[in-house]
Structures are given as C-alpha cells and as structure tokens.
TrEMBL record:
Superkingdom field: Eukaryota
Source species of the chain: Acanthochromis polyacanthus (spiny chromis)
Membrane-spanning intervals of the chain: none
Biological process terms in GO annotation: positive regulation of plasminogen activation
Protein name in UniProt: Plasminogen receptor, C-terminal lysine transmembrane protein
C-alpha cells in the first residue's frame, strides 16, 4: 500500500516539477521578448533623436558657412552678429522641443524605424534564449563551486 502511494506521489511530484519548469521557461521567454522589444523601441527613439538633431545642425552649419564666407569676403565687421545665428537655432530647437511637434515627429520616426528598418535593431548573436542563459548560469555556478574548493 505504501509503495503504491509513494509511486503515485512521485509521479505527481514529477508532473508538478515539469509544469513548474514549463511555466518558468515560458515566463523567461516572455521577459526576454519584452526586454528586447523595449530595447528596440529605445534604440529607435535614440536614432530618431539623432536624425532630428542632424537636420538642425545641418541648417546651422549651412547658415554659419554662408555667413562666415560673406564676412570673410567683405572684410568688414559682420562677425559681431554671427553669434545670433547659432543662438537663434538653439532657441528654435528648444521652442520646438518644448512647445512644438518634435516629440511627435520623433515618435513617428521611431515607429518608422521599427517597421521599415527593424533589421538595424537586431542584437549580435540574436535574441538570448533560455538555453543560452541556463548555459551561462551553469558555467558561472560550476566556476563558483570550483573556486570555493
């Protein structure tokens, strides 16, 4: 009688362990995918910010180049007003950032990056898997036990 009860409990415990392992693995895979999607979205936002900044910097550089060239040709003192040009662009950028549609444009660019340039957001060696994480954990665990000896 005790043998049958023990065998039944062992089978139930094994099923429970398999179920827990399956749920843990599923949860881990979901967390990995969620973190990867968050990383991709953050990278897309950073890329969008860089592109937007480049547009403003390009306009600043063009105007500054034209102004400096004209001042150099005339050899007068128009350089005294030259600081107004970059300051004007900085003010324009800050106003657009604070009150304009900059964030909407950045979000739109980020969404565009996510849909049309998603290959640029991939991680080296692909998305980490449960097996790769377990392999690294076991290697670290065996290394720690080896160092303790």
């Amino acid at each position: 009688m005790g043998f049958l009860l023990s065998k039944s409990l062992d089978a139930n415990m094994k099923k429970q362990q398999e179920f827990m392992l399956h749920n843990t693995r599923l949860q881990m895979e979901r967390q990995i995918l969620m973190q990867n999607q968050m990383r991709e979205r953050q990278m897309a936002m950073q890329m969008a910010w860089s592109r937007e900044f480049l547009k403003y910097y390009g306009a600043f550089f063009t105007v500054a180049t034209v102004g400096l060239t004209a001042g150099a040709i005339r050899r007068k003192k128009p350089f005294l007003t030259a600081p107004l040009i970059p300051l004007g662009f900085v003010l324009t950028y800050q106003m657009d950032s604070a009150y304009g549609t900059l964030i909407h444009r950045m979000r739109g660019e980020a969404e565009n990056i996510l849909t049309s340039e998603c290959d640029r957001l991939e991680m080296p060696h692909g998305i980490p898997t449960f097996e790769s994480i377990e392999k690294a954990r076991r290697a670290k665990s065996s290394l720690a036990s080896f160092l303790e000896k």
